[in-house]
Amino acid sequence: xxxxxxxxxxxxxxxxxxxxxxxxxxxxxxxxxxxxxxxxxxxxxxxxxxxxxxxxxxxxxxxxxxxxxxxxxxxxxxxxxxxxxxxxxxxxxxxxxxxxxxxxxxxxxxxxxxxxxxxxxxxxxxxxxxxxxxxxxxxxxxxxxxxxxxxxxxxxxxxxxxxxxxxxxxxxxxxxxxxxxxxxxxxxxxxxxxxxxxxxxxxxxxxxxxxxxxxxxxxxxxxxxxxxxxxxxxxxxxxxxxxxxxxxxxxxxxxxxxxxxxxxxxxxxxxxxxxxxxxxxxxxxxxxxxxxxxxxxxxxxxxxxxxxxxxxxxxxxxxxxxxxxxxxxxxxxxxxxxxxxxxxxxxxxxxxxxxxxxxxxxxxxxxxxxxxxxxxxxxxxxxxxxxxxxxxxxxxxxxxxxxxxxxxxxxxxxxxxxxxxxxxxxxxxxxxxxxxxxxxxxxxxxxxxxxxxxxxxxxxxxxxxxxxxxxxxxxxxxxxxxxxxxxxxxxxxxxxxxxxxxxxxxxxxxxxxxxxxxxxxxxxxxxxxxxxxxxxxxx
Length: 539
What we know:
single chain, mainly alpha, globular
């Protein structure tokens, strides 16, 4: 196999995915925040909340359009760059993607038009319903896409058919309620809510620093900080659940994230800092926190977390076991070809049993395709090399995870501070805190991108964990074709990103209409007069 094709295909999909995910989390979170703001407007009738809904809704719309434009090309790449993957697991992977398009995307795309053009044409309650349907559609899209991705991380509800040479679904229920997929969904959507909260908080802080749109900014901070604090805390809790699922279903990924070369006595320690050296199988200048990794990874004090070296040895045994299944598969294929003319496809019972008893490790035998066309002729040295290939890149995983966690903790602190100031300090915000909120706008995006690096790089060398190696999933394309399209995608997506940033900055600088804030301030004064409140000199 041509590893250049594999690397270029991976790089192209990685670049388009990372670009696309610049827009997804803001769409997920803003859709909910906008619906919350409109709910307050319908309940109170105060014009400022209507203006807030329209202003933040405009920014949501810009981001939504760019998210759709960058997301569609990713689905086409499955057929163009990953054709064997699509053939091999299309019966399972294609189902949630099709449902996403039919159920979620059409719902979202239909009602987003009604949201923008329904002002003054729909009743308040009808328009509010539309806003919540847009939010529901956005989050449903994430659900089905993450079900598909979760199946790649932990394939359940499917089995390999030696006749068709494809994976076939055996239980849609198992695919739908895959624990890895469910954990990924709630963790990813919560991260999107934090992203939108940080965005609204930062833009509102920028307004306050310049003394513009003060009424809108103060209320937006109150909503964003409360929503963002709840979301950021849930990210931690749901991230812990996701980490537990990884320790149960993707042990090599867990060991690589922790740079745990050798199996430690339970409970394992957590490596806070260090410099992993994959060639030497050691972590230099490591700082350990006793017991923490054991508690997080196993939720017990007496369960071991296997280290990389132990897992490599186990995978070497799985490769050998997979060769038994591969041998049976080749005999089945030969018999199918021989019996094709007779119309008889009966598989001998002993051969069928041999395959079924060892089919769980068939994917490990496929790892040998990197070194030999016929895995049955692989040498012991090639089997060892294939086993070592099951270790993902440790250094980037180790540090991506720690930077992600550090950013998450800082966002919790930010949201907690502004929630306290909003709830208990009369919406008074010191200027240094406002400046920090502006500078922190990119933090949740960076954390989200690092999270995807951990999830996807940690799955290597598999496209579907334990079943289909990445190196076997690509299409038969030339390196030139891939290089040209890679450059084209990067150039196009960069232009789209520049356009999106330009539009967002334009509408942020423009801001909402001033007269609504003034009307709402008048309503505040009027309510004080009616209730006997004391007006300030400024009022």
